[in-house]
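Example 4.3 (complexes with small molecules)
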Amino acid sequence: MTTRRRLVRVPASSANLGPGFDVFAAALALHVEVEVIETGRFAVETKLDIARDRRNLCVRGFARLHSPEGFTFRIRSAVPLSGGLGSSAAAYTAGVLAAAHIFELQEDVLGHVAELEGHPDNAAAALLGGFVIVTGGGEVARFEAPAGLEAVIVVPRAAVRTAVARRALPAQVPIADAVANVGRGALLTLGLSTGDFSLVGRGLHDRLHQPYRAHLFPQSMALLERARELGAIGATISGAGPTVLFWTQADATDAVVGRLRREAAGWADVLRAPFESQGADVREL
Ligand code: HSE
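Answer. The structure with L-homoserine bound is encoded below.
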Protein backbone atom coordinates (compact mmCIF):
# COMPACT_ATOMS: atom_id res chain seq x y z
CA MET A 1 0.00 0.00 0.00
CA THR A 2 1.29 3.48 -0.82
CA THR A 3 1.46 5.70 2.25
CA ARG A 4 -0.58 8.80 1.61
CA ARG A 5 1.27 11.90 2.74
CA ARG A 6 0.55 15.61 2.33
CA LEU A 7 2.36 18.79 3.41
CA VAL A 8 0.07 21.76 4.02
CA ARG A 9 1.45 25.28 4.51
CA VAL A 10 -0.91 28.01 5.68
CA PRO A 11 -0.17 31.67 6.44
CA ALA A 12 -1.01 33.57 9.62
CA SER A 13 -3.43 36.45 9.28
CA SER A 14 -4.44 39.72 10.86
CA ALA A 15 -8.18 40.35 10.98
CA ASN A 16 -10.29 43.52 11.31
CA LEU A 17 -7.51 45.91 10.11
CA GLY A 18 -9.07 48.66 12.24
CA PRO A 19 -12.55 49.50 10.94
CA GLY A 20 -13.42 46.16 9.33
CA PHE A 21 -14.56 44.07 12.28
CA ASP A 22 -15.20 40.50 11.01
CA VAL A 23 -14.88 41.88 7.43
CA PHE A 24 -11.25 42.75 6.59
CA ALA A 25 -8.17 40.55 6.97
CA ALA A 26 -4.68 40.20 5.51
CA ALA A 27 -2.39 37.18 5.28
CA LEU A 28 1.04 37.49 6.92
CA ALA A 29 4.26 35.67 6.02
CA LEU A 30 4.49 33.52 9.14
CA HIS A 31 3.37 29.96 8.54
CA VAL A 32 1.85 26.86 10.06
CA GLU A 33 3.14 23.67 8.40
CA VAL A 34 1.43 20.34 8.86
CA GLU A 35 2.50 16.98 7.46
CA VAL A 36 -0.37 14.52 7.42
CA ILE A 37 0.85 10.95 6.98
CA GLU A 38 -1.14 7.72 6.75
CA THR A 39 0.96 5.75 9.26
CA GLY A 40 -1.80 3.44 10.50
CA ARG A 41 -1.86 5.06 13.95
CA PHE A 42 -3.34 8.31 15.20
CA ALA A 43 -0.74 10.71 16.62
CA VAL A 44 0.01 14.41 16.85
CA GLU A 45 3.75 15.11 16.78
CA THR A 46 4.82 18.63 17.65
CA LYS A 47 7.14 20.66 19.84
CA LEU A 48 4.41 23.27 20.33
CA ASP A 49 2.39 23.61 23.52
CA ILE A 50 -0.88 22.50 21.90
CA ALA A 51 -3.28 19.56 22.24
CA ARG A 52 -1.94 16.19 21.02
CA ASP A 53 -5.26 14.42 20.97
CA ARG A 54 -8.45 14.81 18.99
CA ARG A 55 -8.98 18.30 20.45
CA ASN A 56 -6.06 19.52 18.32
CA LEU A 57 -7.43 22.14 15.89
CA CYS A 58 -5.73 20.65 12.86
CA VAL A 59 -7.17 17.24 13.73
CA ARG A 60 -10.60 18.80 14.24
CA GLY A 61 -10.36 20.41 10.81
CA PHE A 62 -9.42 17.05 9.26
CA ALA A 63 -12.20 15.28 11.19
CA ARG A 64 -14.73 17.61 9.57
CA LEU A 65 -14.26 15.57 6.37
CA HIS A 66 -12.83 12.19 7.47
CA SER A 67 -11.88 10.21 10.56
CA PRO A 68 -8.28 11.01 11.64
CA GLU A 69 -7.84 7.36 12.76
CA GLY A 70 -4.66 5.95 11.21
CA PHE A 71 -3.17 9.39 10.44
CA THR A 72 -0.18 11.11 12.06
CA PHE A 73 -0.11 14.90 12.15
CA ARG A 74 3.34 16.54 12.33
CA ILE A 75 2.83 20.19 13.20
CA ARG A 76 5.33 23.06 13.06
CA SER A 77 4.50 26.72 13.37
CA ALA A 78 6.16 30.13 13.35
CA VAL A 79 2.89 31.79 14.34
CA PRO A 80 2.89 33.13 17.92
CA LEU A 81 0.03 31.65 19.96
CA SER A 82 -0.73 34.52 22.36
CA GLY A 83 -3.54 35.79 20.17
CA GLY A 84 -4.58 37.79 17.16
CA LEU A 85 -2.60 36.13 14.37
CA GLY A 86 -5.11 33.63 13.06
CA SER A 87 -3.28 30.54 14.33
CA SER A 88 -6.52 28.67 14.94
CA ALA A 89 -7.86 29.48 11.45
CA ALA A 90 -4.54 28.35 9.96
CA ALA A 91 -4.66 25.07 11.90
CA TYR A 92 -8.27 24.33 10.93
CA THR A 93 -7.49 25.24 7.31
CA ALA A 94 -4.51 22.86 7.26
CA GLY A 95 -6.63 19.99 8.58
CA VAL A 96 -9.60 20.53 6.24
CA LEU A 97 -7.33 20.98 3.20
CA ALA A 98 -5.29 17.88 3.98
CA ALA A 99 -8.42 15.73 4.22
CA ALA A 100 -9.97 17.24 1.08
CA HIS A 101 -6.76 16.60 -0.86
CA ILE A 102 -6.13 13.06 0.39
CA PHE A 103 -9.70 11.91 -0.20
CA GLU A 104 -10.22 14.02 -3.34
CA LEU A 105 -13.27 15.76 -1.93
CA GLN A 106 -14.72 18.87 -3.57
CA GLU A 107 -15.55 20.80 -0.42
CA ASP A 108 -16.23 24.39 0.55
CA VAL A 109 -13.05 24.64 2.62
CA LEU A 110 -13.69 28.27 3.58
CA GLY A 111 -17.23 27.41 4.70
CA HIS A 112 -15.95 24.59 6.93
CA VAL A 113 -13.23 26.70 8.54
CA ALA A 114 -15.54 29.69 9.01
CA GLU A 115 -18.03 27.44 10.81
CA LEU A 116 -15.33 25.99 13.05
CA GLU A 117 -14.00 29.48 13.82
CA GLY A 118 -17.35 31.24 14.13
CA HIS A 119 -16.24 34.02 11.76
CA PRO A 120 -14.78 33.93 8.22
CA ASP A 121 -12.19 36.75 8.14
CA ASN A 122 -9.00 34.91 9.22
CA ALA A 123 -10.15 31.80 7.36
CA ALA A 124 -10.45 33.68 4.04
CA ALA A 125 -7.03 35.32 4.38
CA ALA A 126 -5.42 32.00 5.39
CA LEU A 127 -6.92 30.21 2.43
CA LEU A 128 -6.54 32.86 -0.27
CA GLY A 129 -3.59 35.02 0.86
CA GLY A 130 -3.43 38.77 0.16
CA PHE A 131 -6.06 41.11 1.57
CA VAL A 132 -9.66 39.93 1.83
CA ILE A 133 -13.06 41.50 2.36
CA VAL A 134 -15.72 39.04 3.55
CA THR A 135 -19.40 39.53 4.14
CA GLY A 136 -21.77 37.71 6.45
CA GLY A 137 -23.42 36.25 3.35
CA GLY A 138 -20.32 34.24 2.44
CA GLU A 139 -19.01 36.56 -0.30
CA VAL A 140 -15.26 37.10 -0.52
CA ALA A 141 -13.24 39.67 -2.47
CA ARG A 142 -9.45 39.41 -2.55
CA PHE A 143 -6.80 41.91 -3.58
CA GLU A 144 -3.03 42.40 -3.32
CA ALA A 145 -1.23 44.67 -0.89
CA PRO A 146 0.07 47.83 -2.60
CA ALA A 147 3.82 47.92 -3.35
CA GLY A 148 5.92 49.34 -0.53
CA LEU A 149 3.48 48.55 2.27
CA GLU A 150 5.00 46.51 5.11
CA ALA A 151 3.96 45.27 8.52
CA VAL A 152 5.58 44.78 11.90
CA ILE A 153 3.84 42.95 14.72
CA VAL A 154 4.18 43.47 18.45
CA VAL A 155 3.21 40.24 20.20
CA PRO A 156 2.59 40.51 23.95
CA ARG A 157 3.69 37.49 26.00
CA ALA A 158 0.44 37.47 27.99
CA ALA A 159 -2.23 35.73 25.92
CA VAL A 160 -5.84 36.85 25.47
CA ARG A 161 -8.41 34.28 24.45
CA THR A 162 -10.52 35.18 21.43
CA ALA A 163 -13.68 33.92 23.18
CA VAL A 164 -13.06 36.37 26.03
CA ALA A 165 -12.41 39.24 23.60
CA ARG A 166 -15.63 38.46 21.71
CA ARG A 167 -17.61 38.47 24.93
CA ALA A 168 -16.29 41.98 25.66
CA LEU A 169 -18.24 43.38 22.70
CA PRO A 170 -21.67 44.96 23.14
CA ALA A 171 -24.72 43.52 21.38
CA GLN A 172 -25.51 46.94 19.92
CA VAL A 173 -23.39 49.96 18.98
CA PRO A 174 -24.24 53.65 18.53
CA ILE A 175 -25.15 54.56 14.95
CA ALA A 176 -22.50 57.33 14.98
CA ASP A 177 -19.80 54.73 15.65
CA ALA A 178 -21.12 52.45 12.89
CA VAL A 179 -21.13 55.40 10.46
CA ALA A 180 -17.59 56.38 11.48
CA ASN A 181 -16.34 52.85 10.79
CA VAL A 182 -18.01 52.70 7.38
CA GLY A 183 -16.19 55.93 6.47
CA ARG A 184 -12.84 54.71 7.77
CA GLY A 185 -13.25 51.34 6.05
CA ALA A 186 -13.94 53.10 2.76
CA LEU A 187 -10.83 55.30 3.18
CA LEU A 188 -8.74 52.24 3.96
CA THR A 189 -10.00 50.30 0.92
CA LEU A 190 -9.42 53.29 -1.36
CA GLY A 191 -5.95 53.84 0.10
CA LEU A 192 -4.97 50.19 -0.33
CA SER A 193 -6.30 49.99 -3.87
CA THR A 194 -4.57 53.19 -5.02
CA GLY A 195 -1.38 52.84 -2.94
CA ASP A 196 -2.12 56.12 -1.13
CA PHE A 197 -0.57 55.59 2.31
CA SER A 198 -1.98 58.81 3.69
CA LEU A 199 -5.50 57.46 3.04
CA VAL A 200 -4.46 54.11 4.54
CA GLY A 201 -3.34 55.87 7.73
CA ARG A 202 -6.61 57.82 7.95
CA GLY A 203 -8.53 54.60 7.39
CA LEU A 204 -7.10 52.60 10.29
CA HIS A 205 -9.29 54.02 13.08
CA ASP A 206 -11.92 51.92 14.78
CA ARG A 207 -14.85 52.61 17.12
CA LEU A 208 -16.60 49.23 17.07
CA HIS A 209 -14.28 46.73 18.78
CA GLN A 210 -10.91 48.13 19.93
CA PRO A 211 -12.38 50.53 22.54
CA TYR A 212 -14.48 47.73 24.08
CA ARG A 213 -11.52 45.36 24.30
CA ALA A 214 -8.90 47.89 25.38
CA HIS A 215 -9.04 46.81 29.05
CA LEU A 216 -7.91 43.31 28.00
CA PHE A 217 -4.60 44.61 26.56
CA PRO A 218 -3.86 48.13 27.88
CA GLN A 219 -0.15 48.06 26.93
CA SER A 220 -1.04 47.11 23.34
CA MET A 221 -3.54 49.99 23.13
CA ALA A 222 -1.09 52.51 24.62
CA LEU A 223 1.54 51.55 22.01
CA LEU A 224 -1.02 51.59 19.19
CA GLU A 225 -1.93 55.20 20.06
CA ARG A 226 1.73 56.18 19.49
CA ALA A 227 2.06 54.57 16.04
CA ARG A 228 2.61 57.83 14.11
CA GLU A 229 5.11 59.16 16.65
CA LEU A 230 7.04 55.86 16.26
CA GLY A 231 7.23 56.35 12.48
CA ALA A 232 4.44 54.01 11.32
CA ILE A 233 1.56 54.82 8.98
CA GLY A 234 -0.74 53.66 11.78
CA ALA A 235 -1.53 50.59 13.87
CA THR A 236 -4.43 48.24 14.49
CA ILE A 237 -5.19 45.56 17.04
CA SER A 238 -4.62 42.32 15.16
CA GLY A 239 -7.83 40.29 15.25
CA ALA A 240 -9.10 39.95 18.80
CA GLY A 241 -5.69 41.01 20.20
CA PRO A 242 -3.45 41.36 22.08
CA THR A 243 -1.04 41.51 19.09
CA VAL A 244 -0.66 44.93 17.43
CA LEU A 245 -0.09 45.30 13.68
CA PHE A 246 2.03 48.35 12.79
CA TRP A 247 1.64 49.43 9.15
CA THR A 248 4.84 50.85 7.67
CA GLN A 249 6.28 52.29 4.49
CA ALA A 250 9.16 50.04 3.37
CA ASP A 251 11.84 52.71 3.80
CA ALA A 252 10.75 53.35 7.41
CA THR A 253 10.33 49.73 8.58
CA ASP A 254 13.83 49.25 10.06
CA ALA A 255 13.57 52.40 12.16
CA VAL A 256 10.07 51.44 13.36
CA VAL A 257 11.29 47.95 14.35
CA GLY A 258 14.14 49.49 16.38
CA ARG A 259 11.83 51.88 18.22
CA LEU A 260 9.23 49.18 18.86
CA ARG A 261 11.89 46.82 20.28
CA ARG A 262 12.82 49.46 22.86
CA GLU A 263 9.15 50.08 23.74
CA ALA A 264 8.26 46.38 23.94
CA ALA A 265 11.27 45.29 26.03
CA GLY A 266 10.11 42.99 28.84
CA TRP A 267 6.49 42.44 27.78
CA ALA A 268 6.26 41.74 24.05
CA ASP A 269 8.21 40.45 21.04
CA VAL A 270 8.61 42.47 17.86
CA LEU A 271 8.62 40.63 14.51
CA ARG A 272 8.63 41.66 10.88
CA ALA A 273 5.61 40.02 9.28
CA PRO A 274 5.42 40.95 5.59
CA PHE A 275 2.00 40.84 3.93
CA GLU A 276 1.72 37.44 2.22
CA SER A 277 0.26 37.08 -1.24
CA GLN A 278 0.28 33.26 -1.31
CA GLY A 279 -2.60 31.50 0.42
CA ALA A 280 -2.75 27.95 1.77
CA ASP A 281 -0.87 25.38 -0.25
CA VAL A 282 -1.02 21.53 -0.27
CA ARG A 283 1.66 19.28 -1.69
CA GLU A 284 1.73 15.52 -2.14
CA LEU A 285 4.94 14.08 -0.69
N1 HSE B 1 -12.81 39.31 13.72
C1 HSE B 1 -12.47 38.46 14.83
C2 HSE B 1 -12.59 39.22 16.13
C3 HSE B 1 -11.07 37.96 14.63
O1 HSE B 1 -12.13 40.35 16.19
O2 HSE B 1 -13.15 38.69 17.09
C4 HSE B 1 -10.62 37.01 15.71
O3 HSE B 1 -9.34 36.55 15.36
